[in-house]
Amino acid sequence: MSVLKTFFKDTAIYGLAIVLPRLINFLLVRLHTDVLPNESYSENTEFYVVAAFFNVILTYGMETSFFRFFSKNKDKKAVLSTAMITIVVSTLFFGILLFLFRVPISETLRINTDFYNLLVGITLIDTLIVIPFAYLRVTGRPIKFASIKLINVLVIVALNVLLLSTSYGSDGLRNLFSVENNVEYIFIANLIASAVVLILVIPYFFKARLTFDTKILKQLFTYGWPIMIAGLAFVINENLDKWLLPELEGEFINGAYSACYKLAVFMTLFIQAFRMGAEPFFFNHSDKENATQTYATILKYFTIVGSLGLMIVVIYIDLLRPIFIQKESYLLALDIVPIVLLANLCLGIYHNLSIWYKLTDRTRFGMYISLIGAAITIAFNLIFIPKIGFMACAYATLIAYSLMMLISYALGRKYYPVPYHISRIAIYLLLSAALSFITYYYFDRDILLGTVFLLCYITLIVFLERKELKLLLKKS
Fold first, then answer.
1. Which among 97, 283, 341, 351 is most buried, taking Cβ atoms within 10 Å?
2. Are 98 and 57 in contact (CB under 8 A)?
3. In contact, 201 and 18? CB cutoff 8 Å
4. Rounded to whole angstroms, how far apart are CA atoms 5 and 206?
5. 308 and 432 Cβ atoms separated by less than 8 Å
6. Which residues have C-beta within 8 Å of that of residue 207, sequence separation ≥ 6?
7. Are the beta carbons of 131 and 86 closer than 8 angstroms?
8. Calpha distance 35→55 (Å, rounded)
9. DSSP 262
């Protein structure tokens, strides 16, 4: 139990480092949807869809590779230095190419040239800070990590308010930038905040001696390139809908869909917080006694917490939604929220299960699984968006992530058996999904009935887990 307590403690700290800044940033959804029309909000979404693709390509799996080989290699400074030099050189190289060919690339990606320049600037800076942040995580410095993340989002929020808000905005600051579309202020704020973070992490570029080991580079690249392909597939799974909808249904619909999709952020934040603490923990404890039992217990409690989050957001959506979105034009896509929440919970379980191919250095399987998910996403969206509109995007996400979860579990049983509590996990996942969907779609978001369902569900969890819960409470 002491190992689990360490894991939960680290995850809680990293969780705050991720959740608190992202939650503060999420509050900007209200400002953006109040100030921007649906079409401009759609442009904002498309901008960050392309940024996600660029980030995956420019980091080419180096972050996870760094975790793997920093943990297992005795010469840790050589790993740090090699990873750092590689990222810096490749970022500068790709940056030159992206700026040289900015006109054809921006036209192909349907991005305004002014937006494109900001996009490249943000992407290059965010790539440069990947290894310093990974170093903070793998060496157990969550407070420093959290502080820098918080500074980043506070700068973003402050600049968004000053540049966009009609009540608190600064005409003097706005006059510094010549923009034709208010959405450009969002990108300028992001670029400035990223630059501030880069300044804060510069000392970490000099933490290791200047060493470049080609053998280590080969190991990092061999391990990382399948993760890059998997990352691209993941970006397709997560963002293709927001790329196709403007073409197939129009910018107005995409703006509404993208805004309502943000309401699933609570599940996304939980998953991201978990991954921040879990990834280095799994690598560092892989050689410990009873490691697989620990992984099994972690997945069970991950599912419990995630399923509770699913029910809470769905049941109380009418109380949460006005905090973030008030403009009626954005609410036409609200029905996607339960489906997207469940899809993200399945994705979180998949990330948990994926430890088998990372620990056995079979990252190509992660690539294969993600490509299957991407193929499903592409096919389902192209076929069904013209028939059922934006709801097809939500269904495609759920089907893709569910299948990825099941495939990963089946392969993991063969290559790295973990004694997962499958019956309990299935009960929690399926029951929470059923109760959430019944409350939302069949009983038209009846809060009272949903609360009764939630209390019954919590009672079941306490009953089934009473022995472990008592033990955990005694230990604490």
1. 341
2. no
3. no
4. 33
5. yes
6. 77, 80, 135
7. no
8. 28
9. G
Residue 119: both structure tokens together: 């996009």
The percentage of residues in the chain with a pLDDT greater than 70, rounded to a whole number, is 89
Residue 342 CB neighbours (<10 A): 26
Could you count the other beta carbons within 10 Å of the beta carbon of residue 107? 11
Average pLDDT over residues 51-79: 84
Rounded distance, CA 120 to CA 118, Å? Answer: 6
Distances (CA, A) of 353 to 44, 111, 417, 423: 33, 37, 10, 15
The average confidence (pLDDT) of the chain is 86
3-state helix, strand, coil in the chain (%, to 5): 85, 0, 15
Q: Which residues 6+ apart lie within 8 Å of 315 measured at CB?
A: 436, 439, 445, 447, 450, 451, 453, 454
- Structure tokens belonging to residue 134: 């990974």
Cα angle for residues 347, 348, 353 (degrees, 5° grid): 95
pLDDT tens across 330-359, in order? 999 999 999 999 999 999 999 889 888 888
**pLDDT recorded at residue 168:** 58
The model's pTM: 0.82
CA-only gyration radius of the chain, Å = 22
Span 125-179, pLDDT tens digits: 999 999 888 888 777 777 788 788 889 888 998 999 888 876 555 666 777 777 7
* End-to-end C-alpha distance for the chain, whole angstroms: 10
* Dihedral sign from CA coordinates of 98, 50, 138, 409: negative
- Report the candidate in 383, 382, 358, 385 with the shortest Cα–Cα distance to residue 369: 358
* Closest of 363, 322, 317, 319 to residue 337, by C-alpha: 317
Nearest to 327 by CA among 45, 40, 47: 40
Minimal CA–CA distance to 36: which of 254, 268, 249? 254
